[in-house]
């Protein structure tokens, strides 16, 4: 069955005319503003009005304040002070003085802080908690304990919702201790132990110790050490307990075991192994077998494979080992055999696991690992058997959608067309919401196209465009659709089972009647971005769209593009399914920023590269953090290894080059675009191969191509055996399309 299909030309051509997008209104309608403020008291409305007035008056303070707080030079101080004098008749002046006070505070010039704060007192109705906190911090810097207590007395009553409440609590308590009033400090801190915080607990332990109540101090310190082992204060608690005669800290078996579990969950495997290794001597006989497996697992994760294997061997030989622990052991023993490329042992352990715990999560993980192992060895027949076993055992298991797709794809790669068609359609029917659906739709469409069934092919490609607007495969599908022409379209029943795209969030406007929002705007003008961020985060629970957008703009002003992108991703997780016009333009620009654009474009042009592709690569590599350094020591925007940087600098005849220059955007872009050009040339202009090599290395890519016999570059991309590299290439190609749409004029 076919139906006529007419498609808007801009769908295929993606004309810039479709890109105008929405704008975010800076002000609510007068009716909305009236409704939102109607519930406020006259005093609250007056405060909000004055905050907004101060925000407008100080709009031009931000660049000077930012320069001062970042550099704190004499010229910067003079500039902000001149601004303060110039605005002495409005609230911008006191705000500038507050900026000066904070800058002097950072410089520990406490007399200057006091002098500047004298000119900020008129701001107290707007941000009195900040002024009070800074006064107390100044007194603390001068070790004036009595003044600290005078300033902070009643702080929590006057500013019960202040972000500085926790800091003020600690400052006040520590001041009491320093004044010889540790008893008062204990009473005060005991009232402020909820919510539990390690720094509050440490202060309380210190107060108990000063008061001579060492048993009480030990009790609190043990709580930090055992219940909050990943906190900075846990180390301090450990050393303090040593001074109090406890080495190691005295805890029950259950406390120590719980600590080890918390460390393991935090991926601090060596620390977990250390704790478990000491604890095993105290383990009751009925728990010993399970404990040995826990310790062996921690040792394996900490890369002590031989030690882990000895314990696992003992676990297998022990008839008292619980079934789940033995299943865990068999999984890890199979992994060790895989590491050693011992296929015989690997098969033996899997066979034992099938018999012992066929429905356990360890069975699923072992099968997935086995499938991946044989896929990497290009033994597709065997890999498919393991992948198939996963979803045949548990159709809706954790790994089933991915395993089904891998089985379908490898079946296609082996040329088993009829079976592959069935599996592609089955992927859509069984796992319609899985991450692999766009790939299944595209490749089923390609198979229809290869069979000469253009109507069915068009149906699959069109579904990609409708449901997955700017996904990697949707972009490829539109390209195919344009090539085969716009005519009849088929009606495959399986496509009707697919869910429609999720609705997009609304409400991108920040509420004008929220005091925290208005305070955040004032702090933003003062270039106190970290405080502004905290005020915004406290202004609304969750990740409301307006909050994400406000945060993204703040992060962007700080140059923290990675945080801006992540904030918006959380608010609009389905943005790749949206039309450009469905999301406000500033949000798109936050998701796809273009800092350092002039240098980027210059480097791309000189090397005959698409600047949108380079921007997309940088977004994936460093998310525009010029100071980014990876675990492999790749540096800067384009994540260049020092050796690569030196080689490119030599080629470009850059004299006196140092590795630190890779953290300079101009230099990194100059060298990075040159290096990427070499990659592109190496693969005769085929950027997908170049991107894969940029991530995984040319040797691996050349090996994959040599052994792959791929019919198209898209087939190569889907066949990349490293998930990280495959998703990396697809993401960059996908994002480059959006960069071109958002910035068509370059």
User: Major sheet, described briefly?
Assistant: 2 strands, antiparallel
Shape: globular
Q: Please state the average pLDDT score.
A: 93
CATH architecture of the largest domain: Alpha Horseshoe
Regarding quaternary structure, what we see is: single chain
By CATH, the superfamily of the largest domain comes out as Tetratricopeptide repeat domain
Strand % is: under 5%
> Rounded to an integer, what's the Rg over CA atoms?
31 Å
In percent, how helical is the residue content? 55-70%
Q: Please count the helical segments.
A: 41
- The tally of beta strands, per DSSP, is 2
Q: For the largest sheet, list the strands in their spatial order.
A: 1-2
What is the end-to-end distance? 44 Å
Provide the number of structural domains.
4
Give me the CATH fold name of the largest domain: Serine Threonine Protein Phosphatase 5, Tetratricopeptide repeat
Task: Pick out the low-confidence regions.
Answer: 1-38
Based on secondary structure, the structural category is mainly alpha
Please identify the top-level CATH class of the largest domain. Answer: Mainly Alpha
Describe what this molecule looks like in 3D:
With 746 residues, this protein is an all-alpha fold. It folds into 4 domains: 43-250, Serine Threonine Protein Phosphatase 5, Tetratricopeptide repeat, CATH 1.25.40; 252-357, Serine Threonine Protein Phosphatase 5, Tetratricopeptide repeat, CATH 1.25.40; 504-591, Tetratricopeptide repeat domain (Serine Threonine Protein Phosphatase 5, Tetratricopeptide repeat, Alpha Horseshoe); 597-742, Lysozyme (Orthogonal Bundle). A two-stranded antiparallel ribbon has the order 1-2.
